[in-house]
């Protein structure tokens, strides 16, 4: 079974569940209660939009327990003495790896929390999560050419530029060393 919580120094990464996604989409005032975190002012961030939420919910519903951990993840900044735990972004995978061990990773951070290294830390945690599964060998990521901050996050996490997608987005790739149990 895939672990559904991953800790980094400043973040708790929590795999999306059907209950969380349903609350996020249909009962937004209950979402932070279920999540156990304060909300940023501009939720949802960037490319993590209603379409992504619906896609993740559909995939989790169709795939049952085996789909858990292969789609959306919430990035929650850990509580401090002066601040409650706070949702700062979302990321995850576009599904389980294919037969070659390849899957795609994506991420978005709320504007209130950008330029603090949190996207880099979130992506690092997602890479570690992918390695923990023992199933991922290769990660893909895409970003827009006019988003140098996102490109920096990928490069800082060992991704290498690998051309341009047909839709104009830049393609990045990196290998993953599966963790040995």
Automatic annotation (TrEMBL):
Q: Name one Pfam family in it.
A: Acetyltransf_3
Q: Matching SUPFAM superfamilies, A to Z?
A: Acyl-CoA N-acyltransferases (Nat)
Question: What InterPro entries does the entry give?
Answer: Acyl_CoA_acyltransferase, GNAT_dom, N-acetyltransferase
Q: Which residues form the N-acetyltransferase domain?
A: 28-177
Superkingdom assignment:
Bacteria
Q: Which protein is depicted?
A: GNAT family N-acetyltransferase
């Amino acid at each position: 079974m895939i672990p559904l919580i991953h800790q980094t120094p400043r973040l708790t990464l929590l795999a999306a569940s059907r209950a969380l996604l349903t609350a996020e989409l249909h009962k937004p005032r209950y979402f932070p209660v279920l999540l156990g975190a304060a909300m940023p002012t501009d939720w949802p961030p960037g490319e993590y939009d209603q379409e992504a939420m619906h896609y993740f919910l559909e995939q989790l519903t169709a795939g049952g327990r085996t789909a858990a951990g292969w789609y959306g993840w919430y990035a929650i900044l850990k509580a401090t003495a002066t601040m409650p735990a706070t949702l700062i972004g979302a990321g995850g995978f576009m599904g389980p790896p294919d037969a070659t061990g390849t899957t795609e990773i994506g991420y978005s951070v709320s504007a209130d929390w950008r330029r603090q290294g949190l996207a880099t830390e979130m992506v690092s945690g997602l890479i570690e999560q992918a390695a923990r599964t023992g199933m991922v060998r290769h990660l893909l990521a895409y970003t827009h050419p006019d988003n140098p901050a996102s490109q920096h996050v990928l490069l800082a996490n060992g991704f290498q530029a690998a051309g341009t997608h047909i839709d104009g987005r830049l393609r990045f790739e990196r290998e993953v060393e599966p963790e040995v149990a």
